[in-house]
Amino acid sequence: MSMVSHHKNVYVWHALAGYWGGVKPAAAGMEHYDTALAYPVQSPGVLGNQPDIVMDSLAVHGLGLVHPKKVFDFYNELHAYLASCGVDGVKVDVQNIIETLGAGHGGRVSLTRAYHQALEASIARNFPDNGCIACMCHNTDGLYSAKQTAIVRASDDFYPRDPASHTVHISSVAYNSLFLGEFMQPDWDMFHSLHPAADYHAAARSVGGCPIYVSDKPGNHNFELLKKIVLPDGSVLRAQLPGRPTRDCLFVDPARDGISLLKIWNVNKCTGVVGVFNCQGAGWCKVVKTTRIHDTSPGTLTGSVQATDVDDLARVAGPDWNGETVVYAHRSGEVIRLPKGASLPVTLKVLEYELYHFCPLKEIAANISFAPIGLLNMFNSGGVVEQIEVHLASDKKPEHFDGEVHSELSTSLSRNRSPTATISLKARGCGRFGSYSSQVPLKCKVGNNEVDFEYEPATGLLTFVIPVPEEEMYKWQIEIQV
């Protein structure tokens, strides 16, 4: 088994039972696993809600179940071989099958616990970075037995050929993350970058705080889309927390009630973000036992977003924040200064989205305020901003300005003035970097070089270009003199 040199990490798939049908009993060289055929017994609830042809087949033909006292040897020998080939971890799928096989082994909880303890012991021995992604594992036996596994699939699969699945996928992962995100890192699954719903899926994962990966067929890629997610060094701008529904979405059904938009919030180191999605029109059908479109032409919906939708924004902003934000809307490109308590309307058709970046406003002096936005072309623009510091030119404390935005922007200060402060930023990536400044800056520097900038007095949008760094994960030192 050879590793392709430009792949930094490789994971290998296997099922918790080995493969879909388990391990073949008494196979040559595998006799020491004491494998025996076991026949799944499903609960009435599962059978009534989602009968499955695979489970029906296994109930007849059986699954080769490694004896729980020998399953550590099985995992350890499998993982040791993979590690010797340069593999970094495993994606362990079909985990919930074990709950149907507890007869003769002390019941489902006892069997599941034995399998998870063995799995995690083997992971710890063979993959020092805890290289394990758990999948098909939402049975509570599995969730509560997994003590070390850090990443959990939060959703059903991405189904590229099922038009009914895309809105349901986004709403499901958001609500599942509300629970799963308290003790594991939710994984919102892969998607295709060249697909009618690719933007929709990419935007959701950008606010999901989750791993981001695609399962594109080689040669079938939308690189313009991928460039909005991935930096040139291969890193992604992952938000800080698991993406979860905003408080006003917790007790609505944004997939089927016909009136609600789904809002997902997250934070970066210096900003917050709210993704808004129209997920209406499809859902699980109890009659045909599958996800189907129940409304072929769901209406356009209108809602609103505000800074308090980002539940953790006050902590990110710091103790001196007065509640004002600058909002950058990714798709429309609008930059709006939003007073404390104000909201913005949002109108979306089905399978449409918008990403609102809430940037806490820093008051530097009378008539001068500032907020970094980030790389404007990236889905998670604010994910590039690592740090912000304000260095006043004098020892005077900044004066607080309480006026409206139009008065501050219209009170233009002379470009020949002495600098009031230098704003120092640390930021990653490359491309068009945006900030809000109530006054035109005197000077902008990226690294050691002064750079040209553009300034829009009507909105306060300040932009300049950050070059491609030569080092991976490089943090640019940016200085803006106001």
UniProtKB/TrEMBL annotation:
<dbReference type="InterPro" id="IPR017853">
    <property type="entry name" value="GH"/>
</dbReference>
<comment type="similarity">
    <text>Belongs to the glycosyl hydrolases 36 family.</text>
</comment>
<dbReference type="Pfam" id="PF05691">
    <property type="entry name" value="Raffinose_syn"/>
</dbReference>
<dbReference type="InterPro" id="IPR008811">
    <property type="entry name" value="Glycosyl_hydrolases_36"/>
</dbReference>
<keyword id="KW-0119">Carbohydrate metabolism</keyword>
<dbReference type="GO" id="GO:0052692">
    <property type="term" value="F:raffinose alpha-galactosidase activity"/>
</dbReference>
<protein>
    <recommendedName>
        <fullName>Seed imbibition protein</fullName>
    </recommendedName>
</protein>
